[in-house]
Amino acid sequence: MGKRLTQIATRTGDDGTTGLGDNTRVPKDHLRVRAMGDVDELNSHLGLLLCEELPADARELLVEIQHQLFNLGGELSIPGFELLKGDAVLALDQALEHYNAQLPRLEEFILPAGNRAAAQAHVCRTVARRAERAVVALGAQDSLRAAPRQYLNRLSDLMFVLARVCNRMHGGDDVYWKSERLSRSQAS
């Protein structure tokens, strides 16, 4: 593959627009650009999560997800183009099944806390949800395939599950929400 980026500071965005992959220019606050930005932010947060101690298979999975998010961002940047394949969604479904099978059933809500890896996985979960909302908003305006929306939906679920997996490393556990209402009903 040849060198694609020859210049970073082009100054073409100084007017408040940015170029899409099909060479059209749109305002930087366009729904498509917002969705691309949220996917990019999610990928950056995954990079930060990869700096933490993780199970080896989870690390390998997250690296693959980063590549798929690049595909998703590319697809968003070129209206009508397909880069994210359906098997990417299937891979997340399989990962969800694999990691969920290792976890105890949830009995209560959990807080986005625990060790650093789990906390960062929760950040990834929330950014994935925001990216999903941005893709849904874009889909209401422009024609989009279902795969990008589905991928982000599954990814946010997977990040929740991986946070639970991370909290169990070295014998830890989830951090449970202490609901006053539930505490009162259990005391009765």
TrEMBL record:
Cobalamin adenosyltransferase-like domain spans which residues? 8-166
Which example biological process does GO assign this protein?
A: cobalamin biosynthetic process
**Pfam families, per database record:** Cob_adeno_trans (PF01923)
The answer, when asked if Nucleotide-binding is one of the entry's keywords, is yes
Enzyme class, UniProt record, top EC level = transferase
Which Gene Ontology molecular function entries are recorded, alphabetically?
Answer: ATP binding; corrinoid adenosyltransferase activity
- EC number in record: 2.5.1.-
NCBIfam families noted in UniProt: PduO_Nterm
Recorded protein name is Cobalamin adenosyltransferase
